[in-house]
Write a structure and sequence with these properties.
It comes from Roseibium sediminicola. Helices cover 10% and strands 32% of the residues. It has one helix at 2-15, and strands at 36-38, 44-49, 57-63, 72-73, 78-84, 87-90, 107-110, 117-120, 126-132, 139-140. The termini are far apart.
Length: 146
């Protein structure tokens, strides 16, 4: 029965429907129940609210230790909170000596259209809570959108 309930909860999460734990409308998703979708680059997304490809969304995001993204832009603003690991988010013109390392509990905000790169600089994976105010895209600088 527990397996069936977890499968149903995962289905609701993937379709963006709320999983309510009680009659008062409180929605709870224990960490072990998160459903992670891993990209070919190794970045994992666990949907919390919304479909990231269609609309604004909230998700847990997990990056492998040492991952460095190419410089890119996004069409939507990003708002994040580091849960674990250590990350750097910078524009292309910041010298490595000037990079600020963010740790658990630190907040970051990246405006839509700002060319930047992100890196997980810890020896363990980085996990963030992410809200994006529009649909997900990832456009490396120098490329054009289809």
């Amino acid at each position: 029965m527990t397996t069936i309930l977890r499968a149903a909860a995962a289905t609701f999460l993937l379709t963006g429907l709320a999983v309510e734990a009680s009659a008062d409308g409180i929605r709870l998703i224990p960490q072990p129940d998160l459903v992670w979708e891993v990209t070919p680059e190794g970045v994992a997304f666990a949907a919390l609210k919304g479909n990231r490809f269609l609309e604004s969304y909230m998700a847990m995001v997990r990056l492998p230790a040492g991952l460095v993204s190419p410089i890119h832009v996004k069409s939507a603003g990003m708002f994040g909170l580091i849960v674990s690991g250590e990350m750097v988010h910078v524009t292309g013109n910041v010298a490595p000596a000037q990079e600020q390392v963010l740790k658990a509990g630190d907040y970051y905000e990246i405006p839509a259209g700002l060319a930047h790169l992100s890196k997980c600089v810890s020896t363990t994976e980085c996990v963030t809570f992410l809200y994006q105010d529009g649909a997900f895209d990832f456009v490396p600088v120098g490329e054009t959108r289809p």
